[in-house]
Design a protein that fits this description.
- The chain has 13 helices and no strands.
- It has helices spanning 2-12, 23-37, 39-62, 69-83, 85-94, 102-111, 113-142, 149-155, 162-184, 187-193, 198-211, 213-231, 238-256.
- It has one domain (19-256).
- The protein is an all-alpha fold.
- The protein starts with a helix and ends with a helix.
- The longest helix is centred in the middle third of the chain and has 30 residues, at 113-142.
Length: 259
């Protein structure tokens, strides 16, 4: 029995490093170095997010549902770590001085398809929960479907119930964002780097966030700010911000989780 308890404690409380607040700037700087070292792969794959986001917005606009881009953009940030696994592999190879093509990075991700997919399904469930709750919250405060995007600011944010609507929406979104961040902060790069199960990786990620909660609050806010900035100006910035965040996340993992 003692052996079983010891084993469970190891699984539930894996070893992680305690880091200082100022280390997050180091992760960003190293992420930028990786971007400069591999500009072709970075911009090629980063540009995919720009094109996809623009086409999604265009499709929603044609259907008269462009205002849904707001909760969808927030939802995308919940699952974005899954799509950044290619950047983790680029950084991993770069630590050994190796250059990698986009096709080679994709092949490396395929080798870890099972655990990556498991984490991806969990994050997708969190995203779907956010979308359902976001639509439900809007219906409770305003009733009916969201108005066209050009009327959203006037008809929604100037209404008397705007403040409680924003407070409730922000609180719910913050909780789900915290859950998604805790699950994915280091789990996906850990899967790419080590032979671990998805469960072990997610438990390690949660433990890492809990033990470094002050640092990780700031780190999560930094990621959210950079992501939001990339979505401005017709999502053009995503071609740069997605690779930067992906590379920086890899270096955060390396600093937080001992091999």
């Amino acid at each position: 029995m003692a052996h079983i308890i010891h084993f469970m404690s190891d699984v539930i409380r894996p070893e992680v490093r305690i880091v200082s607040v100022d280390e997050s700037s180091v992760w960003l700087r190293k992420g930028l170095d990786d971007f400069i070292r591999e500009p072709g792969v970075s911009l090629a794959y980063g540009g995919v997010f720009t094109v996809m986001a623009f086409l999604l917005f265009l499709g929603l606009d044609i259907a008269g549902l462009a205002s849904l881009i707001l909760p969808l953009a927030a939802g995308f940030m919940l699952v974005a770590p899954l799509f950044a696994v290619i950047f983790y592999e680029v950084s991993r190879r770069g630590e050994s001085g190796l250059y990698i093509s986009l096709g080679e990075a994709v092949d490396a991700c395929r080798e870890k398809a099972a655990p990556l997919a498991f984490v991806g399904v969990v994050l997708l469930l969190v995203m779907l929960s956010w979308m359902i709750l976001a639509m439900g919250i809007f219906a409770v405060f305003y009733g009916g479907a969201p108005p066209p995007v050009e009327d959203f600011l006037v008809n929604v944010l100037t209404a008397p119930q705007a403040i409680p609507f924003l407070m409730v929406g922000t609180a719910v979104g913050g909780v789900l964002a915290t859950v998604a961040f805790a699950l994915s902060a280091v789990s996906l790069p850990m899967i790419m780097d080590q032979d671990v199960s998805a469960t072990t990786a997610m438990v390690t990620s949660i433990d890492t966030v809990l033990r470094n909660w002050k640092v990780m609050i700031g780190w999560g806010a930094t990621i959210a700010f950079i992501s939001f900035t990339g979505m401005l100006f017709l999502f053009m910035g995503l071609a740069f911000t997605m690779p930067l965040i992906g590379y920086a996340t890899w270096h955060a993992y390396k600093a937080l989780v001992p091999r």
